[in-house]
Specification:
The chain is an alpha/beta fold. The protein folds into 2 domains: 126 residues, Rossmann fold (3-Layer(aba) Sandwich), CATH 3.40.50.1000; 68 residues, DNA polymerase, domain 1. Helix content is 50%, strand content 11%. The protein is built from 11 helices and 5 strands; from the N terminus they run βααααααβαβααβαβα. Strands 3-2-1-4-5 form a 5-stranded parallel β-sheet, sandwiched between helices. Helix 1 crosses helix 5 and helix 3 runs antiparallel to helix 4. The longest helix has 12 residues. 34% of the residues are buried. The mean pLDDT is 94.
Length: 201
């Protein structure tokens, strides 16, 4: 019997705003495609930031140093990420109205504290989400199995009693190992509802 449903954040509960924000920054400041992504993402600082090991200010300072010949405006960069992180209102309302009254709801996601808490304010999901297994709080990242073990332990259930929803097949191995049923979200709400109806038992 299904007792809990866990959701990823970016690409499921909201549009994945980080990558789109980076792309929009490149367009706005005429930076060659992919170059700004290397500056802000392809280094240990990004992982440490999402693991909650360094602050946003420390992360942005690292990016500033890496920017070198490219213009770096930290405030505008964060604004563009926030603008691109658009909530999936249809899914969120479904969770609040149809799922939360019957199942324990959780989030399992790789996020910085600032990005995650900003989203929670946007969508007002706090009352519906019982478990928040987020990389910045527990200092682990998907697809590490520990993320999913913590989720199941908090819910007090076995993997077979849960469903995990993610948009990325490369992030689900740990969940599958523990017996969690998987739904890959394909940015199609109606298809998700149909797959969920089949997965719930």
């Amino acid at each position: 019997m299904t007792k809990a449903i866990f959701f990823d954040n970016g690409g499921v509960l909201c549009q994945e705003g980080y990558t789109l924000g980076v792309q929009n920054y490149e367009k706005e400041f005429n930076i060659p495609k992919g170059e700004f992504y290397k500056i802000v993402h392809d280094h240990q600082g990004w992982e440490d930031f999402t693991l909650g090991l360094i602050t946003q200010a420390e992360y942005l300072a690292m990016c500033q140093k890496r920017a070198r010949e490219y213009f770096f405006n930290a405030r505008r960069f964060i604004e563009l990420i926030n603008e691109a992180t658009v909530p999936n209102i249809e899914l969120i309302n479904y969770i609040k109205q149809d799922l939360a009254p019957h199942y324990n709801i959780g989030i399992i996601s790789n996020n910085s504290k600032e990005v995650f808490e900003s989203l929670m304010k946007k969508v007002n999901l706090d009352e519906s989400v019982k478990y928040k297994i987020v990389s910045c709080y527990i200092h682990e990242r998907k697809p590490d199995k520990k993320m999913f073990q913590i989720a199941l332990a908090q819910a007090g259930i076995q993997g077979e009693e849960s469903i995990y929803v993610d948009d990325r097949p490369d992030r689900i191995d740990g969940a599958k190992e523990l017996g969690m049923r998987i739904i890959i979200y394909k940015n199609n709400f109606q298809q998700f509802k149909e797959e969920l109806a089949k997965a719930i038992h």
